[in-house]
Every structure is written in structure tokens, then in C-alpha cells.
Amino acid sequence: MPLNINGVAYLSTAQAAERLGVTASTLRTHRSDGTRSGLETLKLGNVVLYTAASVEREAARRGAGR
């Protein structure tokens, strides 16, 4: 279930990874090495959240969830 902050839906790293068909470790690696994934993030302390909209766009682009 997405977390809503100021009207924007966010997913945890685990939720985003599941939707995209990758591991959470893959998403962390992409963030740390600067790979341009097109995923919009919000960092709150040590927690990284992904906008649900950017995850859905990337999932559609990749054809995930078929």
C-alpha cells in the first residue's frame, strides 16, 4: 500500500523492487552508482521512498507485471 505524503503516493524500496521485478539490492546499487533509472526518490533519514508514478512508468517501460 502506497504511503501518501503531501498528496504524492510513495512506495518503499521493497515495494518498488517487487513491482519492477528486481531486488531491493538492485535499486540500492542503481542509486549509489548513479545509474539513470528515471525513478524519482524521496530520502527521509535512512529511508528511501520511490514515487508510485515513476515506478509505474518504469514498470510499463520494462513490461513488468505481465
Helix/strand class: alpha+beta
CATH architecture: Orthogonal Bundle
Q: Quote the CATH topology.
A: Multidrug-efflux Transporter Regulator, Chain: A, Domain 2
First CA to last CA: what distance?
20 Å
Which regions are unreliable across 5 or more consecutive residues at pLDDT < 50? none
> How many domains would you count in the coordinates?
1
Q: Biggest sheet, strands in spatial order?
A: 1-2-4-3
- How much of the sequence lies in strands comes to 25-35%
Query: Please, what is the average pLDDT?
Result: 88
Residues in helices, as a percent range: 40-55%
Principal-axes shape call: globular
Number of strands: 4
Write structural notes for this entry.
This protein has helices spanning 13-20, 24-33, 52-62; strands spanning 3-5, 8-12, 41-44, 47-51. With 66 residues, it is of the alpha+beta class. The protein has one domain (3-64): Multidrug-efflux Transporter Regulator, Chain: A, Domain 2 (Orthogonal Bundle), CATH 1.10.1660. The chain has a 4-stranded antiparallel sheet. Helix 1 crosses helix 2. The chain is globular. The relative contact order is 0.24. It comes from Streptomyces toyocaensis. This is Helix-turn-helix domain-containing protein.
